[in-house]
Design goal:
This protein is an alpha/beta fold. The protein is 38% helix and 15% strand. It contains eight helices and seven strands. Strands 2-1-5-7-6 form a five-stranded mixed β-sheet. Strands 3-4 form a two-stranded antiparallel ribbon. Helix 4 (123-140) crosses helix 5 (150-157).
Length: 219
């Protein structure tokens, strides 16, 4: 009997990841990923961006609305805030490789043409996308990984990860079979969601402080 199971039902990107060819080959292959159902509603795959010799890799949650439309990571308001925070911390955004734990935008939408509202990916969806992140780490070989938010932390360190417990310190863990140094902090979008100017400024200062820890780890 012929199986009618779709590739996304397996919840793994592994069959779509090429064995060689570098970041360019990964990016091309990721465009056709059907490793989980998220590809059905997203505009396109949003793969990582940056140089193969980047010393630091920044890992966020998933693309947002603007990233999904433009096909590039961290090009929306959160990305602009992150660039400013990196600069204040003494790190050049152009020297980093930026990516997300999940490569497709997950959202809810009340009706067509209404605003698309971000929805957090499940652990199963994060795990399905794991082979892409593992391949990026293997090619870039960063000296340091900066975890941006809880979803990225859970994707890299497991479901028990908590930003509040781990942020602002240099961690050493084995990730996808590689020893990595990591620094965790909040996702820049959480700074933008702060309720008032005072809270937003405090959250931003906390982000910059964590990124200064990362900058010192690279010096």
């Amino acid at each position: 009997m012929v199986s009618t199971k779709a590739p996304e039902d397996a919840y793994t990107a592994a069959p779509f990841v090429p064995e060689k060819g570098g970041l360019a080959a990964l990016r091309r292959a990721a465009a056709d990923c059907r490793g989980c159902p998220l590809h059905r509603n997203a505009t396109q795959t949003v793969f990582g961006a940056g140089n193969t010799d980047a010393r630091v890799m920044l890992v966020g949650e998933q693309p947002g609305d603007q990233e999904d439309r433009q096909g590039k990571p961290f090009v929306g308001p959160a990305g602009r805030l992150l660039d400013r925070a990196l600069g204040e911390a003494g790190m050049d955004p152009a020297d980093a490789y930026v990516t997300n734990a999940v490569k497709h935008f997950k959202f809810t939408q009340a009706e067509p043409r209404k605003r698309r509202i971000h929805k957090a990916p499940t652990l199963r969806e994060m795990t399905a996308c794991g082979p892409w992140l593992a391949a990026e780490l293997a090619i870039v070989e960063p000296e340091l990984v900066v975890i941006l938010g809880a979803t990225a932390g859970k994707a890299l360190l497991g479901s028990s990860f908590r930003v509040g417990e781990a942020r602002g310190a240099v961690l050493e863990r084995e990730i996808h079979g590689r020893p990595e140094k990591l620094v965790a902090t909040v996702h820049p979008s959480s700074v933008l969601r702060a309720q008032d100017d005072k809270d937003r400024e405090a959250a931003y200062r906390g982000l910059v402080s964590d990124l200064k820890v990362a900058a010192r780890a690279l010096s």
